[in-house]
Amino acid sequence: MRPADKAPSKAPDDLTQKLIAGRGRIGTVPLWTTIIGILAVGIIYAVLPPNLRIGPNWLLLVIEAVMLLPLVITIWVRPIFSHRAIRTSFLILLGLLTLALIIGVVLLIITLPADKHATNLLRSAVLLWSFNVLVFALWYWEVDGGGPLKRHLSGHQAADFMFPQQAKGNTSGWAPHFLDYLFLAFTGATALSPADTYPLTRTAKALMMIEAIISVTVIVILVGRGVNILGS
User: Fold this and answer.
1) Does the residue 8 lie in any domain?
2) What does residue 172 show for φ and ψ, rounded to 5 degrees?
3) Best label site of 4, 22, 131, 151, fewest CB within 10 Å?
4) CA 9, 14, 147: angle at the middle one, nearest 5?
5) What is the pLDDT of residues 100-143, one digit of tens each?
6) How does pLDDT run across 18-56, given as a tens digit for each residue?
7) How many CB atoms lie under 10 A from the CB of residue 228?
């Protein structure tokens, strides 16, 4: 076959090229903080009591490593995956993390009557509450405006959430980082309502409702049970 007859290699799409150009950053927003957040969820899962897990304690960390591989390879090595494929992989990973969280809460409720150790209950509640905050911070980060890259391309205008800096059209060019979404998730899990950042879409409102339900379950039912045991 002559060189001219060879099929041309498929070039990365425009979104993928913009993602690669950042080399770990999208505008002023670093991506490594999100990866640390995902790994922190895997670590919390690893230290959960055995009765709150399905499978070995390292299982979630391995799943995270496999699912994050396309993002790491595309950004820091070579563009072998499209932006759409990376985002789909990320959403699937978030679904698995959420499933692990819900299973942990359900298992804790099921084993609650038989567990008379207040320290174990309080420790489990703290871990699951932290699990909840991190998972929904990741959801907010990825859902808002179609993800960090699309937020950057739109000038970080308010989309699914509106931060105070975006209230008047974000004329300063302020960009939310993962810590901003972590704070949003933290306030949602403690106050059970948004503090200074407001959900604008049904998706954002649904996510905040689910986070609040899980937080109420952990704080009111499980921590309350531990306090009653300590007082008896």
Assistant:
1) no
2) -85, -10
3) 4
4) 130
5) 999 999 998 888 777 677 777 888 888 999 999 999 999 999 99
6) 676 666 788 788 888 999 999 999 999 999 999 899 989
7) 11
Residue 5, domain member (yes or no): no
Q: How many domains does the chain have?
A: 1
Q: In angstroms, what CA-CA distances link 215 with 96, 134, 192, 200, 220?
A: 19, 12, 8, 21, 8
Tokens of 144: 């808002």
pLDDT-above-90 percentage for the chain: 50
Q: In whole angstroms, what is the distance from residue 168 CA to residue 172 CA?
A: 10
Token pair listed for 112: 């609650």
| Domain coverage including residue 187 | 13-231
Is 2 within a domain?
A: no
Which tokens go with 194?
A: 């948004």
Considering the domain boundaries, does residue 30 fall inside one? yes
Q: What is the DSSP string of 29-41?
A: EESHHHHHHHHHH
